[in-house]
Structures are given as structure tokens and as C-alpha cells.
Design goal:
The complex is a heterodimer.
Chain A lengths: L2 E5 L2 E5 L4 E8 L5 E7 L5 E7 L5 E3 L5 E5 L4 E6 L8 E8 L8 E2 L3 E6 L1
Parallel strand pairs in A: 2-11
Antiparallel strand pairs in A: 1-3, 3-8, 4-5, 4-9, 6-7, 7-8, 9-10, 9-11
Chain B lengths: L4 E3 L2 E4 L5 E6 L6 E7 L6 E7 L2 E5 L7 E4 L6 E5 L8 E8 L10 E2 L3 E5 L1
Parallel strand pairs in B: 2-11
Antiparallel strand pairs in B: 1-3, 3-8, 4-5, 4-9, 5-6, 7-8, 9-10, 9-11
The chains are: A mainly beta, B mainly beta.
Chain lengths: ~110, ~120
């Protein structure tokens, strides 16, 4: 069975500071990993995905994540936070079977202080 | 390609009433998924279709819930005899078996259900 653990339900950073959102996964097969962002009362928008190619994945809006198999981690980073980054972020895993059924973490809400 | 479309966006219903939601996936996407998201939680998988066949159902999908995709295009999710615990955002997603879209699911904006 697959699972995702997001460390920290809330993260607060100052505008311009580094953003680091932590995600650890469990999967019995090589995983596909995703980060999604969700704004209030909106659906999910894909930020980036790892599909067994490069371990450092670059996404939209300046975000990137690094797949570390030895640590079973897929942390999301952004060098400089912007006010518009304030949202809920979800890490997710899929094994590529079951029609890309995706298992989500509980989410991390990012607050950005001016 | 207009993305995954869900209707209605919001639904308020009285406890005990039946509700039905509709999802129109991205055209040509073979697979369609339903998820439920409660406040402060990540989305939870409910069920998925490949074309018109419902291939998997979560244990979260009680017998009051039924999903269909009769022609392999749009899908409906019906909840009978709604309960307050059904209040949630219901998300639909679709994916393709081939092409560049075969490694991710694309999500709609969701239908927010409030049972009063």
C-alpha cells in the first residue's frame, strides 16, 4: 500500500524567504510523485511531478522538488516566497497502476508574511 | 481543451435528500476519477472508471453513493439520503492512457456539498 506523510500542517515564512515543504512517501514499487497547490474553494493545480526521469524536478511558479529514494522523500522548495504562494499544498503518490489512482497527504498550509 | 468541468460548483441540500453531481472530463481521456475532500484534509479516492467500466471502488463509497459513466464520457455521482457527514468537496479528475497526459490526472474545480 502507498502512503504520504507531510510534515507540518502549517508553515509560515516571510516574503522573500526560502520555502521548504516536507513530504515522505511509502511505496512498494517505484513511485510517481506529485505536488499540487490548492487555493480556497478551488480545485487542485499540478505544480510538478516525478516520473522516474531526473531526480530534481522543476515546476511552475519557481517551485522544484528533489526525489531522494534513500530517504523516501520528495520535499518541495522555492528560493524566494511571494505573497501569492500562500495556499494549501498537497504531496501525492501513485504507483501508475489502478489508472493513476493518487494517494494524497493531509496537506500543508503555507502562510507568507509581508 | 477546456479542462475538467464539474457542475454544480456548490450545492446546499437538506439532510435526507438525494443529490447528483456531474463531471465532464477532458475529451479523449479514458480514465475518470472521483475524490472526496473534507475540510483540512487531502482528497480521498472514491472510485475510478476506464471508459464506461467502473474498475475500482473505495470502501469510503457506501451503498448510498453510486457513480456512473454510461457512455464513457461524462460521469455522475449520486448520493442518496444525504447525511451531514457527506458535506465535503467532491473532486473529479481525468487522465489519458496514452500521450503526454498518461502520467498525471487533471482535476476539476470541484463541487462543494453542504448538507444542512
Amino acid at each position: 500500500a502507498q502512503s504520504v506523510t507531510q510534515l507540518g500542517s502549517h508553515v509560515s515564512v516571510s516574503e522573500g524567504a526560502l520555502v521548504l515543504l516536507r513530504c515522505n512517501y511509502s511505496s512498494s514499487v517505484p513511485p510517481y510523485l506529485f505536488w499540487y497547490v490548492q487555493y480556497p474553494n478551488q480545485g487542485l493545480q499540478l505544480l510538478l511531478k516525478y516520473t522516474s526521469a531526473a531526480t530534481l524536478v522543476k515546476g511552475i511558479n519557481g517551485f522544484e522538488a528533489e526525489f531522494k529514494k534513500s530517504e523516501t522523500s520528495f520535499h518541495l522548495t522555492k528560493p524566494s516566497a511571494h505573497m501569492s504562494d500562500a495556499a494549501e499544498y498537497f504531496c501525492a503518490v501513485s504507483d501508475g497502476t489502478g489508472g493513476f489512482k493518487t494517494i494524497f497527504g493531509a496537506g500543508t498550509r503555507l502562510f507568507v508574511k509581508a | 481543451d477546456t479542462g475538467v468541468s464539474q457542475n454544480p460548483r456548490h450545492k446546499i441540500t437538506k439532510r435526507g435528500q438525494n443529490v447528483t453531481f456531474r463531471c465532464d472530463p477532458i475529451s479523449e481521456h479514458n480514465r475518470l476519477y472521483w475524490y472526496r475532500q473534507t475540510l483540512g484534509q487531502g482528497p480521498e479516492f472514491l472510485t475510478y472508471f476506464q471508459n464506461e467500466a467502473q474498475l475500482e471502488k473505495s470502501r469510503l463509497l457506501s451503498d448510498r453513493f453510486s457513480a456512473e459513466r454510461p457512455k464513457g464520457s461524462f460521469s455522475t455521482l449520486e448520493i442518496q439520503r444525504t447525511e451531514q457527514g457527506d458535506s465535503a468537496m467532491y473532486l473529479c479528475a481525468s487522465s489519458s492512457l496514452v500521450g503526454s497526459s498518461n502520467t498525471e490526472a487533471f482535476f476539476g474545480q470541484g463541487t462543494r456539498l453542504t448538507v444542512v
